[in-house]
């Protein structure tokens, strides 16, 4: 068993049980306690588990990780995914970009484009793109969340519903094994649903830590999007959904998948 296979198995075991002790994991995988501690620390740094004394438990399904922490989680993977996604956006396109640290990195990757019209409910995205003189950046109205610069509420939804754009770029907090897209904030979800409804194509950016991550609010289904951009092959249950519903899969740094004709690599 490779290190990656063992770590994936640890996450699956913790999810089934809710908690796993170092002693149990050492015996189960026939490795040293030091190896298990390194695995748990690495998984906790990726936001996949919660490190507790003597073992590991699940991350909260009701409270998201702090914004400043999320900005640094899987940063290099997010940059690779963002570059891959940005390569799919042509110059002079119109697009929504919603809330999330991954979307902010996408905004940075789009700064080399020309003539984009960007509608966003993310103050950080607007700040990143404001210096591109040939961009038209439009900020949605509504309530500003102090913790991350996200704009939410009924006014935001009404604003989004005035547009029909080429691409909707959305992030997500978790993707369940049945393909449910999960978030923590009901108001944020409603804005994202409006973005999906008003986009001709919907691109979802999600690094590998989002698969099987728990969150309390259902945003929709992965089958509603047109393309998934990630850094590792998703679990098989997700792959089957993508294949059966013609959702393109883009994996940064890997070869093209046979069932995703629109996939590209970087």
Automatic annotation (TrEMBL):
**Which SUPFAM superfamilies does the entry mention?**
NagB/RpiA/CoA transferase-like, Winged helix' DNA-binding domain
Which Pfam families is this protein grouped with? DeoRC, HTH_DeoR
Domain HTH deoR-type residues, every copy: 3-58
Q: What is this protein called?
A: Transcriptional regulator
**Taxonomic source organism:** Litchfieldella anticariensis (strain DSM 16096 / CECT 5854 / CIP 108499 / LMG 22089 / FP35) (Halomonas anticariensis)
Sections of the chain in a coiled coil: none
Q: Which GO terms describe its molecular function?
A: DNA binding; DNA-binding transcription factor activity
Keywords associated with the record: DNA-binding, Repressor, Transcription, Transcription regulation
């Amino acid at each position: 068993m490779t290190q990656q296979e063992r770590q994936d198995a640890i996450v699956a075991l913790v999810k089934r049980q809710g908690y796993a002790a170092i002693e149990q994991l050492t015996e189960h995988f026939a490795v040293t306690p030091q190896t298990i501690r390194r695995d748990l620390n690495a998984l906790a740094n990726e936001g996949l588990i919660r490190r507790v004394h003597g073992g590991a438990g699940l991350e909260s399904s009701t409270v998201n990780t702090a914004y400043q922490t999320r900005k640094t989680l899987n940063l290099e993977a997010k940059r690779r995914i963002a570059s891959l996604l940005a390569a799919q956006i042509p110059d002079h396109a119109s697009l929504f970009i919603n809330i999330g640290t991954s979307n902010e990195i996408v905004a940075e990757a789009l700064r080399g484009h020309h003539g984009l019209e960007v509608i966003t409910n993310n103050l950080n995205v607007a700040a990143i793109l404001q210096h591109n003189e040939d961009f038209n950046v439009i900020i949605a109205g509504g309530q500003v969340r102090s913790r991350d610069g996200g704009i939410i509420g009924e006014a935001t939804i009404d604003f989004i519903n005035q547009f029909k754009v080429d691409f909707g770029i959305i992030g997500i907090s978790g993707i369940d094994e049945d393909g449910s897209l999960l978030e923590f904030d009901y108001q944020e979800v409603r804005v994202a649903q409006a973005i999906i409804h008003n986009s001709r194509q919907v691109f979802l950016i999600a690094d590998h830590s989002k698969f099987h991550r728990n969150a309390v609010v259902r945003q929709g289904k992965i089958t509603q999007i047109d393309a998934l951009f990630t850094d590792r092959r998703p679990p098989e249950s997700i792959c089957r959904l993508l294949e059966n519903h013609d959702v393109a899969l883009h994996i940064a740094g890997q070869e093209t998948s046979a069932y995703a004709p629109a996939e590209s690599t970087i």
